[in-house]
Specification:
42% of the residues lie in helices and 22% in strands. It has 11 helices and 10 strands. The strands form 2 sheets. It has a 7-stranded mixed beta sheet, sandwiched between helices. Helix 5 links the parallel strand 2 and strand 3.
Length: 282
């Protein structure tokens, strides 16, 4: 997608949301039409005519490239992390698995609360950072569908911002159920499917300047519930955490230069993260 098309798309989302949430506002609509006209008039010139070279990459490659900068400021993590920690803070310390641990951000929180933590990830580069960050945890290389843990060995599984990379939910939820003790806790978070359309598909550049885009399944809330029930879990809570205003605004520098009001109207109050708290089969 050309950058100009992305900006026009954000303008459209802003108009649709405003029509439902604010009613007819002629000044808002006029401002959006004026910006769209300016963007279209510039569509044939840089940077609006730029077409990023996008190539699909697997998560092992993608997160290995991302590892050195993954702990830099990330607006999605800023929204997700407090919500997940509110739930984790209610769970008694025990044996915990941080599945798709990445750089160990949830593992560090769990260890500080007295859990005996095992972290599993498919990226050696991410695990190297996690080991330095949480030296008392046990970090292992592995896949979500084939965890290097024994049956019934943990009381809690947390999986942050990773299930969206899976083609299906049930195989992973089944594997989590295998390693959980009866009645144990599963806490998952993912980017909300609606936010994938606002530029939320995870990716990272490569040495040739191409954008490597990782898999991103569009799981609806009902998909998580259906897969959880089919696997024997009991749902305890679900939260769709909304985008707040963020420092510097959403959408990137070009969007903030050309249409900051539209970007704010498109993002703020839209679901950013979906989080589930499930009880394992007994």
């Amino acid at each position: 997608m050309r950058m100009g098309a992305f900006l026009v798309g954000l303008e459209g989302v802003a108009l649709l949301r405003a029509a439902v949430e604010q009613g007819f506002d002629p000044a808002f609509e006029s401002a959006r039409f004026a910006e769209i006209t300016d963007i279209i008039a510039s569509a044939g010139a840089p940077p609006f005519d730029e077409v990023p070279v996008v190539v699909p990459i697997d998560t092992v490659t993608g997160y290995s490239r991302w590892a050195p900068s993954y702990d830099d400021w990330n607006p999605l993590i800023e929204v997700e992390q407090p919500a997940v920690r509110r739930v984790l803070g209610t769970i008694e310390a025990g044996d915990a698995l941080d599945a798709a641990t990445g750089t160990g951000r949830h593992a560090a929180f769990l260890a500080a609360r007295g859990h005996r933590v095992t972290g599993v990830d498919s990226s050696d580069a991410m695990l190297a950072i996690a080991r330095a960050k949480v030296p008392d945890a046990d970090f292992r290389l592995g896949e979500l569908t084939s965890l290097p843990l024994e049956d019934g060995s943990v009381d809690l599984v947390v999986c942050g911002l990773a299930l969206t990379h899976q083609p299906a939910l049930e195989p992973v939820l089944s594997e989590f159920a295998r390693v959980l003790r009866p009645g144990g806790h599963l806490v998952t978070s993912d980017i909300h499917w609606l936010s994938l359309y606002l530029g939320g598909v995870a990716g990272t550049p490569d040495a040739q300047g191409r954008w490597g885009r990782m898999p991103a399944s569009r799981f609806l809330p009902s998909d998580y519930l259906r897969a959880g029930l089919a696997t024997g879990y009991a749902p305890l809570a679900c939260e769709e955490v909304l985008w707040p205003d963020v420092a510097g605004g959403h959408g990137g520098p070009l969007a903030q230069t050309w249409c900051p009001e539209a970007v704010r109207a498109a993002y703020v109050g839209l679901p950013a993260v979906i989080m589930w708290h499930l009880s394992a089969p007994t």
